[in-house]
Specification:
- Helices cover 44% and strands 18% of the residues.
- By secondary structure, the chain is an alpha/beta fold.
- It has three domains: 2-169 and 356-371, Glycogen Phosphorylase B (Rossmann fold, 3-Layer(aba) Sandwich), CATH 3.40.50.2000; 183-347, Glycogen Phosphorylase B (Rossmann fold, 3-Layer(aba) Sandwich), CATH 3.40.50; 387-439, no CATH class.
- Helix 4 packs parallel to helix 5 (128-139) and helix 10 (217-229) packs parallel to helix 16 (326-338).
- The two termini are 36 Å apart.
- It binds uridine-diphosphate-N-acetylglucosamine and uridine-5'-diphosphate.
- The site of uridine-5'-diphosphate has 15 residues, from helix 1, helix 13 and helix 14.
- Uridine-5'-diphosphate (UDP) is lined by residues 10-11, 14, 207, 209, 238, 267-268, 270, 273, 287-290, 293.
Length: 440
Amino acid sequence: MKIATILGTRPEIIKMAPIIDEISKRDIDQIVLHTGQHYDKEMSDTFFKDLDIQTPDYNIHVGSGTHGKQTGLMMKGIEEVLLDEKPDIVLVQGDTNAVLAGALVASKLHIAIGHVEAGLRSFDMTMPEEVNRRAADVCSTMYFVPTVESAINLLAEGYSRKNLFVTGNTVVDACFRHLEIAKKRGIEEETLKTLNIETMENILTLTMHRAENVDVKERVVSIIEALKELDDMNIIFPIHPRTKNMLEKFELFDELNNLEHVHIIKPLGYLDFLQLTSASTLILTDSGGLQEEAITLSVPALTLRYNTERPETVTAGGNILVGSNKDAILENARKILDDKDFADKMKNAVNPYGDGDSAKLTVDAIEEYYNKGLLDIEAPEDIMTSFSRKMKTVTDDISVSEFEGMEDALVHMVFDGENMRFPTDDLNLNGMVVSYDKRE
Ligand code: UD1
Ligand code: UDP
Protein backbone atom coordinates (compact mmCIF):
# COMPACT_ATOMS: atom_id res chain seq x y z
CA MET A 1 0.00 0.00 0.00
CA LYS A 2 1.13 3.53 -0.67
CA ILE A 3 -0.14 6.54 1.30
CA ALA A 4 0.37 10.16 0.14
CA THR A 5 0.11 12.86 2.77
CA ILE A 6 -0.55 16.40 1.61
CA LEU A 7 0.25 19.27 3.95
CA GLY A 8 1.17 22.91 3.60
CA THR A 9 0.93 24.90 6.82
CA ARG A 10 2.26 24.77 10.38
CA PRO A 11 -0.77 23.08 11.99
CA GLU A 12 -0.96 20.44 9.25
CA ILE A 13 2.67 19.48 9.82
CA ILE A 14 2.10 19.22 13.58
CA LYS A 15 -1.13 17.24 13.31
CA MET A 16 0.05 14.92 10.52
CA ALA A 17 3.38 14.20 12.23
CA PRO A 18 1.99 11.41 14.46
CA ILE A 19 0.38 9.77 11.40
CA ILE A 20 3.52 10.07 9.25
CA ASP A 21 5.45 8.53 12.13
CA GLU A 22 2.90 5.71 12.54
CA ILE A 23 2.96 4.91 8.81
CA SER A 24 6.76 4.81 8.84
CA LYS A 25 6.67 2.07 11.50
CA ARG A 26 4.56 -0.23 9.30
CA ASP A 27 5.12 -2.02 6.03
CA ILE A 28 3.58 0.83 4.02
CA ASP A 29 5.14 3.11 1.38
CA GLN A 30 4.55 6.77 1.94
CA ILE A 31 5.18 10.08 0.28
CA VAL A 32 4.81 13.48 1.85
CA LEU A 33 3.88 16.40 -0.37
CA HIS A 34 4.28 19.97 0.91
CA THR A 35 2.32 22.62 -0.95
CA GLY A 36 4.70 25.36 0.20
CA GLN A 37 1.85 27.56 1.51
CA HIS A 38 3.94 28.18 4.63
CA TYR A 39 7.57 28.66 3.68
CA ASP A 40 9.32 30.68 6.41
CA LYS A 41 11.71 28.43 8.32
CA GLU A 42 9.88 29.07 11.58
CA MET A 43 6.47 28.26 9.99
CA SER A 44 7.59 25.05 8.28
CA ASP A 45 11.10 23.48 8.37
CA THR A 46 11.41 23.81 12.15
CA PHE A 47 8.46 21.48 12.66
CA PHE A 48 9.89 18.56 10.67
CA LYS A 49 12.93 18.78 12.94
CA ASP A 50 11.09 19.33 16.22
CA LEU A 51 8.56 16.57 15.53
CA ASP A 52 11.27 14.28 14.19
CA ILE A 53 9.59 13.26 10.93
CA GLN A 54 10.87 12.82 7.38
CA THR A 55 11.18 15.96 5.30
CA PRO A 56 8.76 16.20 2.35
CA ASP A 57 9.46 14.19 -0.80
CA TYR A 58 7.92 16.99 -2.85
CA ASN A 59 7.47 20.71 -2.29
CA ILE A 60 5.47 22.53 -4.92
CA HIS A 61 6.32 25.99 -3.53
CA VAL A 62 3.00 27.73 -4.12
CA GLY A 63 3.86 30.51 -1.67
CA SER A 64 1.40 33.24 -0.70
CA GLY A 65 -1.38 34.64 -2.86
CA THR A 66 -5.12 34.99 -3.26
CA HIS A 67 -7.21 31.93 -2.51
CA GLY A 68 -7.95 31.19 -6.17
CA LYS A 69 -4.35 31.53 -7.29
CA GLN A 70 -2.96 29.57 -4.36
CA THR A 71 -5.51 26.76 -4.67
CA GLY A 72 -5.14 26.60 -8.47
CA LEU A 73 -1.35 26.32 -8.27
CA MET A 74 -1.70 23.64 -5.61
CA MET A 75 -4.11 21.63 -7.75
CA LYS A 76 -1.75 21.71 -10.72
CA GLY A 77 1.26 20.64 -8.65
CA ILE A 78 -0.60 17.99 -6.65
CA GLU A 79 -2.08 16.44 -9.81
CA GLU A 80 1.37 16.01 -11.37
CA VAL A 81 2.68 14.24 -8.29
CA LEU A 82 -0.36 11.99 -7.84
CA LEU A 83 -0.36 10.94 -11.51
CA ASP A 84 3.24 9.94 -11.10
CA GLU A 85 3.07 8.30 -7.66
CA LYS A 86 -0.36 6.62 -7.92
CA PRO A 87 -0.98 6.26 -4.17
CA ASP A 88 -3.79 4.08 -2.81
CA ILE A 89 -5.01 6.88 -0.59
CA VAL A 90 -4.36 10.59 -0.14
CA LEU A 91 -4.51 12.05 3.36
CA VAL A 92 -5.45 15.67 3.94
CA GLN A 93 -5.78 17.31 7.35
CA GLY A 94 -8.10 20.02 8.61
CA ASP A 95 -9.33 22.97 6.60
CA THR A 96 -6.58 24.82 4.77
CA ASN A 97 -6.35 25.44 1.03
CA ALA A 98 -4.18 22.29 0.73
CA VAL A 99 -7.16 20.27 1.95
CA LEU A 100 -9.44 21.74 -0.69
CA ALA A 101 -6.88 21.34 -3.48
CA GLY A 102 -5.78 17.84 -2.45
CA ALA A 103 -9.33 16.55 -2.07
CA LEU A 104 -10.54 17.98 -5.39
CA VAL A 105 -7.58 16.64 -7.35
CA ALA A 106 -7.57 13.18 -5.78
CA SER A 107 -11.32 12.71 -6.22
CA LYS A 108 -11.10 13.52 -9.93
CA LEU A 109 -8.27 11.00 -10.27
CA HIS A 110 -10.44 8.41 -8.47
CA ILE A 111 -7.94 8.11 -5.65
CA ALA A 112 -9.38 7.45 -2.19
CA ILE A 113 -9.17 10.35 0.24
CA GLY A 114 -8.86 10.22 4.02
CA HIS A 115 -9.87 13.46 5.69
CA VAL A 116 -8.12 13.76 9.03
CA GLU A 117 -10.05 16.02 11.45
CA ALA A 118 -13.22 15.75 9.36
CA GLY A 119 -16.66 16.87 10.42
CA LEU A 120 -15.80 20.14 12.18
CA ARG A 121 -18.33 22.89 11.50
CA SER A 122 -18.37 26.55 12.50
CA PHE A 123 -21.50 27.09 10.35
CA ASP A 124 -19.86 30.34 9.20
CA MET A 125 -19.40 30.23 5.44
CA THR A 126 -17.50 33.53 5.43
CA MET A 127 -14.52 31.60 6.84
CA PRO A 128 -12.32 30.14 4.09
CA GLU A 129 -11.71 27.18 6.41
CA GLU A 130 -15.43 26.31 6.58
CA VAL A 131 -15.65 26.20 2.78
CA ASN A 132 -12.49 24.07 2.57
CA ARG A 133 -13.52 21.51 5.17
CA ARG A 134 -17.04 21.11 3.77
CA ALA A 135 -15.76 20.70 0.20
CA ALA A 136 -13.14 18.16 1.32
CA ASP A 137 -15.79 16.16 3.16
CA VAL A 138 -17.90 15.96 -0.01
CA CYS A 139 -14.94 14.36 -1.84
CA SER A 140 -13.66 12.03 0.89
CA THR A 141 -13.75 8.26 1.27
CA MET A 142 -12.73 7.88 4.93
CA TYR A 143 -13.48 10.42 7.66
CA PHE A 144 -11.28 10.54 10.75
CA VAL A 145 -13.44 12.55 13.11
CA PRO A 146 -12.02 13.75 16.41
CA THR A 147 -15.22 13.49 18.45
CA VAL A 148 -18.72 12.02 18.36
CA GLU A 149 -20.01 15.60 17.93
CA SER A 150 -18.09 15.93 14.64
CA ALA A 151 -19.37 12.52 13.53
CA ILE A 152 -22.92 13.68 14.22
CA ASN A 153 -22.33 16.80 12.10
CA LEU A 154 -21.52 14.49 9.18
CA LEU A 155 -24.45 12.15 9.84
CA ALA A 156 -26.76 15.17 9.86
CA GLU A 157 -25.42 16.07 6.39
CA GLY A 158 -26.19 12.57 5.11
CA TYR A 159 -22.76 10.88 5.22
CA SER A 160 -22.72 7.12 5.75
CA ARG A 161 -21.83 6.02 9.29
CA LYS A 162 -19.74 3.23 7.79
CA ASN A 163 -16.99 5.60 6.68
CA LEU A 164 -16.76 7.61 9.92
CA PHE A 165 -14.01 6.75 12.39
CA VAL A 166 -14.01 8.49 15.77
CA THR A 167 -10.28 8.65 16.41
CA GLY A 168 -9.70 11.63 18.69
CA ASN A 169 -7.38 14.35 17.44
CA THR A 170 -3.75 13.71 16.53
CA VAL A 171 -2.86 16.98 18.27
CA VAL A 172 -3.17 15.03 21.54
CA ASP A 173 -0.67 12.42 20.25
CA ALA A 174 1.73 15.22 19.32
CA CYS A 175 1.26 17.05 22.60
CA PHE A 176 1.73 14.00 24.83
CA ARG A 177 4.71 12.70 22.88
CA HIS A 178 6.60 15.95 22.65
CA LEU A 179 5.90 17.68 25.96
CA GLU A 180 8.15 15.26 27.84
CA ILE A 181 10.88 15.58 25.20
CA ALA A 182 10.52 19.36 25.34
CA LYS A 183 10.76 19.50 29.13
CA LYS A 184 13.86 17.30 29.16
CA ARG A 185 15.50 19.50 26.53
CA GLY A 186 14.43 22.79 28.18
CA ILE A 187 13.66 26.01 26.37
CA GLU A 188 16.27 26.98 23.78
CA GLU A 189 18.74 29.61 24.93
CA GLU A 190 17.79 31.89 22.06
CA THR A 191 14.07 31.66 22.91
CA LEU A 192 14.75 32.43 26.56
CA LYS A 193 16.64 35.56 25.55
CA THR A 194 13.87 36.75 23.23
CA LEU A 195 11.18 36.09 25.85
CA ASN A 196 12.73 38.91 27.88
CA ILE A 197 11.16 37.88 31.19
CA GLU A 198 12.77 36.90 34.46
CA THR A 199 10.63 33.91 35.42
CA MET A 200 8.13 31.68 33.67
CA GLU A 201 5.38 33.01 35.94
CA ASN A 202 2.16 34.90 35.24
CA ILE A 203 2.38 33.91 31.60
CA LEU A 204 -0.41 34.71 29.20
CA THR A 205 0.27 33.15 25.81
CA LEU A 206 -1.38 35.02 22.97
CA THR A 207 -1.71 33.91 19.36
CA MET A 208 -3.94 35.31 16.65
CA HIS A 209 -3.94 35.05 12.91
CA ARG A 210 -7.52 34.50 11.72
CA ALA A 211 -8.31 36.68 8.73
CA GLU A 212 -11.61 37.73 10.32
CA ASN A 213 -9.69 39.17 13.30
CA VAL A 214 -6.35 40.45 12.13
CA ASP A 215 -7.49 41.83 8.77
CA VAL A 216 -10.09 44.04 10.51
CA LYS A 217 -8.58 47.11 12.18
CA GLU A 218 -11.45 47.71 14.66
CA ARG A 219 -11.11 44.15 15.97
CA VAL A 220 -7.34 44.42 16.37
CA VAL A 221 -7.70 47.76 18.19
CA SER A 222 -10.30 46.30 20.54
CA ILE A 223 -8.07 43.33 21.40
CA ILE A 224 -5.08 45.62 21.97
CA GLU A 225 -7.16 47.80 24.31
CA ALA A 226 -7.91 44.71 26.40
CA LEU A 227 -4.24 43.62 26.39
CA LYS A 228 -3.20 47.05 27.71
CA GLU A 229 -5.24 46.47 30.87
CA LEU A 230 -3.82 43.00 31.54
CA ASP A 231 -0.58 44.56 32.75
CA ASP A 232 -0.15 42.21 35.71
CA MET A 233 0.64 39.43 33.21
CA ASN A 234 3.64 38.64 31.03
CA ILE A 235 1.93 38.50 27.66
CA ILE A 236 4.01 36.42 25.25
CA PHE A 237 2.91 36.84 21.66
CA PRO A 238 4.69 34.66 19.07
CA ILE A 239 3.47 36.53 16.05
CA HIS A 240 2.13 34.86 12.91
CA PRO A 241 3.46 36.46 9.68
CA ARG A 242 -0.05 37.48 8.56
CA THR A 243 -0.59 39.28 11.87
CA LYS A 244 2.78 41.02 11.74
CA ASN A 245 2.00 42.31 8.25
CA MET A 246 -1.43 43.55 9.27
CA LEU A 247 -0.24 45.22 12.51
CA GLU A 248 2.39 47.05 10.48
CA LYS A 249 -0.15 48.03 7.83
CA PHE A 250 -2.52 49.42 10.51
CA GLU A 251 0.49 51.13 12.21
CA LEU A 252 -0.31 49.30 15.45
CA PHE A 253 2.81 47.14 15.75
CA ASP A 254 4.91 49.68 17.66
CA GLU A 255 2.06 50.66 19.96
CA LEU A 256 1.66 47.03 21.03
CA ASN A 257 5.35 46.24 21.08
CA ASN A 258 6.09 49.26 23.28
CA LEU A 259 3.89 47.96 26.10
CA GLU A 260 6.27 46.75 28.78
CA HIS A 261 4.24 43.64 29.65
CA VAL A 262 3.76 42.53 26.02
CA HIS A 263 6.57 40.52 24.41
CA ILE A 264 6.16 40.10 20.68
CA ILE A 265 8.46 37.35 19.45
CA LYS A 266 8.96 35.29 16.31
CA PRO A 267 6.83 32.14 15.91
CA LEU A 268 8.30 29.44 18.15
CA GLY A 269 9.26 25.87 17.30
CA TYR A 270 6.91 23.19 18.62
CA LEU A 271 9.07 22.14 21.58
CA ASP A 272 9.54 25.69 22.85
CA PHE A 273 5.92 26.56 22.23
CA LEU A 274 4.68 23.53 24.20
CA GLN A 275 6.78 24.60 27.17
CA LEU A 276 5.40 28.10 26.96
CA THR A 277 1.75 27.03 26.70
CA SER A 278 2.02 24.38 29.39
CA ALA A 279 3.53 26.97 31.77
CA SER A 280 0.80 29.52 31.01
CA THR A 281 -1.89 30.71 33.41
CA LEU A 282 -4.10 31.67 30.50
CA ILE A 283 -4.17 31.23 26.74
CA LEU A 284 -5.75 33.90 24.55
CA THR A 285 -6.09 32.72 20.98
CA ASP A 286 -8.04 32.48 17.77
CA SER A 287 -6.14 29.38 16.68
CA GLY A 288 -7.95 26.11 16.10
CA GLY A 289 -5.10 23.89 17.25
CA LEU A 290 -4.42 25.93 20.34
CA GLN A 291 -8.02 25.60 21.57
CA GLU A 292 -7.45 21.84 21.47
CA GLU A 293 -3.98 22.00 23.03
CA ALA A 294 -5.17 24.26 25.87
CA ILE A 295 -7.72 21.69 27.07
CA THR A 296 -5.17 18.89 26.53
CA LEU A 297 -2.65 20.75 28.70
CA SER A 298 -5.30 21.80 31.27
CA VAL A 299 -4.75 25.52 30.69
CA PRO A 300 -7.84 27.80 30.59
CA ALA A 301 -8.45 29.34 27.17
CA LEU A 302 -10.28 32.43 25.99
CA THR A 303 -10.99 32.24 22.28
CA LEU A 304 -10.98 35.46 20.30
CA ARG A 305 -13.81 34.34 18.05
CA TYR A 306 -17.58 34.58 17.81
CA ASN A 307 -18.02 30.94 16.84
CA THR A 308 -15.92 27.80 17.02
CA GLU A 309 -15.83 24.50 15.18
CA ARG A 310 -14.46 23.10 18.45
CA PRO A 311 -17.62 23.55 20.63
CA GLU A 312 -16.63 20.48 22.67
CA THR A 313 -13.96 22.59 24.38
CA VAL A 314 -16.62 25.09 25.45
CA THR A 315 -19.19 22.53 26.65
CA ALA A 316 -16.43 20.68 28.54
CA GLY A 317 -15.76 23.96 30.34
CA GLY A 318 -12.15 24.60 29.29
CA ASN A 319 -12.72 27.34 26.74
CA ILE A 320 -14.80 30.54 26.62
CA LEU A 321 -15.62 32.46 23.43
CA VAL A 322 -15.01 36.19 23.85
CA GLY A 323 -14.88 37.45 20.26
CA SER A 324 -12.76 40.55 19.87
CA ASN A 325 -14.85 42.35 22.49
CA LYS A 326 -12.65 44.23 24.97
CA ASP A 327 -15.13 43.95 27.88
CA ALA A 328 -15.73 40.22 27.34
CA ILE A 329 -11.98 39.56 27.14
CA LEU A 330 -11.27 41.50 30.33
CA GLU A 331 -14.23 40.22 32.33
CA ASN A 332 -13.36 36.57 31.63
CA ALA A 333 -9.60 37.03 31.94
CA ARG A 334 -10.05 38.65 35.36
CA LYS A 335 -12.29 35.78 36.50
CA ILE A 336 -9.62 33.25 35.51
CA LEU A 337 -6.76 35.27 37.02
CA ASP A 338 -8.48 36.32 40.26
CA ASP A 339 -10.92 33.53 41.09
CA LYS A 340 -9.05 30.29 41.84
CA ASP A 341 -12.21 28.15 41.91
CA PHE A 342 -13.25 29.45 38.51
CA ALA A 343 -9.80 28.80 37.06
CA ASP A 344 -9.61 25.32 38.64
CA LYS A 345 -12.95 24.38 37.10
CA MET A 346 -11.64 25.35 33.68
CA LYS A 347 -8.37 23.47 34.24
CA ASN A 348 -10.29 20.34 35.25
CA ALA A 349 -12.33 20.24 32.03
CA VAL A 350 -12.17 16.77 30.52
CA ASN A 351 -10.26 16.68 27.24
CA PRO A 352 -12.70 15.56 24.52
CA TYR A 353 -9.99 14.77 21.96
CA GLY A 354 -8.96 11.26 23.01
CA ASP A 355 -6.04 9.56 24.70
CA GLY A 356 -3.24 10.23 22.21
CA ASP A 357 -3.77 7.11 20.11
CA SER A 358 -5.44 8.87 17.23
CA ALA A 359 -2.64 8.17 14.70
CA LYS A 360 -2.71 4.45 15.47
CA LEU A 361 -6.51 4.27 15.13
CA THR A 362 -6.31 6.18 11.84
CA VAL A 363 -3.66 3.98 10.23
CA ASP A 364 -5.39 0.79 11.55
CA ALA A 365 -8.59 1.88 9.80
CA ILE A 366 -6.74 2.66 6.55
CA GLU A 367 -5.06 -0.77 6.56
CA GLU A 368 -8.40 -2.44 7.15
CA TYR A 369 -10.01 -0.57 4.25
CA TYR A 370 -7.06 -1.39 2.00
CA ASN A 371 -7.21 -5.10 2.89
CA LYS A 372 -10.95 -5.19 2.16
CA GLY A 373 -10.43 -3.48 -1.23
CA LEU A 374 -12.45 -0.47 -0.07
CA LEU A 375 -9.85 2.02 -1.27
CA ASP A 376 -10.47 1.02 -4.91
CA ILE A 377 -12.60 3.78 -6.32
CA GLU A 378 -14.33 2.37 -9.39
CA ALA A 379 -17.47 3.13 -11.31
CA PRO A 380 -20.25 0.88 -10.02
CA GLU A 381 -21.24 -2.13 -12.12
CA ASP A 382 -24.41 -3.08 -10.25
CA ILE A 383 -27.58 -1.50 -11.50
CA MET A 384 -28.71 0.97 -8.89
CA THR A 385 -31.46 -0.14 -6.57
CA SER A 386 -33.84 2.46 -5.24
CA PHE A 387 -34.07 3.15 -1.55
CA SER A 388 -36.39 5.02 0.70
CA ARG A 389 -35.63 6.95 3.84
CA LYS A 390 -37.52 5.67 6.87
CA MET A 391 -37.83 6.12 10.59
CA LYS A 392 -38.78 3.70 13.36
CA THR A 393 -38.96 3.46 17.15
CA VAL A 394 -37.14 0.27 18.21
CA THR A 395 -38.64 -1.70 21.10
CA ASP A 396 -36.39 -4.79 21.14
CA ASP A 397 -32.81 -5.45 22.14
CA ILE A 398 -31.17 -5.21 18.75
CA SER A 399 -27.81 -3.80 17.75
CA VAL A 400 -27.24 -1.41 14.84
CA SER A 401 -25.63 -4.09 12.66
CA GLU A 402 -28.38 -6.63 13.45
CA PHE A 403 -31.00 -4.02 12.57
CA GLU A 404 -29.25 -3.30 9.27
CA GLY A 405 -29.07 -7.01 8.39
CA MET A 406 -32.73 -7.57 9.24
CA GLU A 407 -34.05 -4.54 7.37
CA ASP A 408 -31.50 -4.57 4.51
CA ALA A 409 -30.88 -0.99 5.49
CA LEU A 410 -28.21 1.49 6.45
CA VAL A 411 -28.76 3.13 9.82
CA HIS A 412 -28.37 6.85 9.55
CA MET A 413 -29.32 8.80 12.66
CA VAL A 414 -30.23 7.51 16.11
CA PHE A 415 -32.12 9.53 18.72
CA ASP A 416 -31.95 8.53 22.37
CA GLY A 417 -34.66 10.78 23.82
CA GLU A 418 -33.78 14.20 22.51
CA ASN A 419 -30.07 13.42 22.09
CA MET A 420 -28.40 12.03 19.00
CA ARG A 421 -26.15 9.00 19.42
CA PHE A 422 -23.41 7.83 17.09
CA PRO A 423 -24.53 4.46 15.67
CA THR A 424 -21.63 2.12 16.35
CA ASP A 425 -22.15 -1.49 15.12
CA ASP A 426 -22.92 -2.77 18.61
CA LEU A 427 -25.12 0.07 19.94
CA ASN A 428 -28.29 -1.42 21.43
CA LEU A 429 -31.18 0.43 19.78
CA ASN A 430 -33.86 -0.58 22.28
CA GLY A 431 -35.97 2.49 23.13
CA MET A 432 -34.39 4.66 20.46
CA VAL A 433 -35.73 6.28 17.31
CA VAL A 434 -33.77 5.27 14.20
CA SER A 435 -33.70 6.83 10.77
CA TYR A 436 -32.39 4.58 8.02
CA ASP A 437 -32.13 4.09 4.28
CA LYS A 438 -33.93 0.94 3.20
CA ARG A 439 -33.07 -0.71 -0.12
CA GLU A 440 -36.13 -1.69 -2.11
C1 UD1 B 1 -3.39 29.51 6.79
C2 UD1 B 1 -4.72 28.76 6.67
C3 UD1 B 1 -5.42 28.79 8.02
C4 UD1 B 1 -4.54 28.23 9.11
C5 UD1 B 1 -3.20 28.97 9.11
C6 UD1 B 1 -2.27 28.31 10.09
C7 UD1 B 1 -5.94 28.80 4.54
C8 UD1 B 1 -7.07 29.43 3.82
N1 UD1 B 1 -5.59 29.40 5.71
O1 UD1 B 1 -3.67 30.87 7.11
O2 UD1 B 1 -6.61 28.00 7.95
O3 UD1 B 1 -5.18 28.41 10.34
O4 UD1 B 1 -2.60 28.91 7.80
O5 UD1 B 1 -1.25 29.14 10.49
O6 UD1 B 1 -5.39 27.83 4.10
N2 UD1 B 1 3.26 34.45 5.24
C9 UD1 B 1 4.61 34.59 5.42
N3 UD1 B 1 5.37 33.46 5.54
C10 UD1 B 1 4.85 32.22 5.47
C11 UD1 B 1 3.48 32.08 5.28
C12 UD1 B 1 2.70 33.19 5.17
O7 UD1 B 1 5.12 35.69 5.46
O8 UD1 B 1 5.63 31.25 5.60
C13 UD1 B 1 2.42 35.67 5.17
C14 UD1 B 1 2.14 36.13 3.75
O9 UD1 B 1 2.15 37.52 3.75
C15 UD1 B 1 0.73 35.64 3.49
C16 UD1 B 1 0.10 35.69 4.88
O10 UD1 B 1 1.15 35.39 5.78
O11 UD1 B 1 0.06 36.42 2.55
C17 UD1 B 1 -1.05 34.73 5.07
O12 UD1 B 1 -0.62 33.40 4.74
P1 UD1 B 1 -1.64 32.31 4.16
O13 UD1 B 1 -0.93 31.04 3.97
O14 UD1 B 1 -2.40 32.86 2.99
O15 UD1 B 1 -2.73 32.17 5.28
P2 UD1 B 1 -2.59 32.01 6.84
O16 UD1 B 1 -3.13 33.23 7.48
O17 UD1 B 1 -1.23 31.55 7.19
N1 UDP C 1 2.39 26.80 17.35
C1 UDP C 1 3.77 26.71 17.44
N2 UDP C 1 4.50 27.87 17.59
C2 UDP C 1 3.90 29.09 17.67
C3 UDP C 1 2.49 29.17 17.58
C4 UDP C 1 1.77 28.00 17.41
O1 UDP C 1 4.34 25.61 17.39
O2 UDP C 1 4.61 30.09 17.80
C5 UDP C 1 1.60 25.57 17.13
C6 UDP C 1 0.56 25.26 18.16
O3 UDP C 1 1.11 24.49 19.20
C7 UDP C 1 -0.51 24.52 17.38
C8 UDP C 1 -0.35 25.04 15.97
O4 UDP C 1 0.88 25.73 15.93
O5 UDP C 1 -0.25 23.13 17.38
C9 UDP C 1 -1.48 25.96 15.62
O6 UDP C 1 -1.22 26.57 14.40
P1 UDP C 1 -1.98 27.86 13.94
O7 UDP C 1 -2.51 28.60 15.11
O8 UDP C 1 -1.07 28.57 13.01
O9 UDP C 1 -3.16 27.27 13.03
P2 UDP C 1 -4.64 26.74 13.34
O10 UDP C 1 -4.55 25.66 14.33
O11 UDP C 1 -5.45 27.91 13.78
O12 UDP C 1 -5.10 26.28 12.00
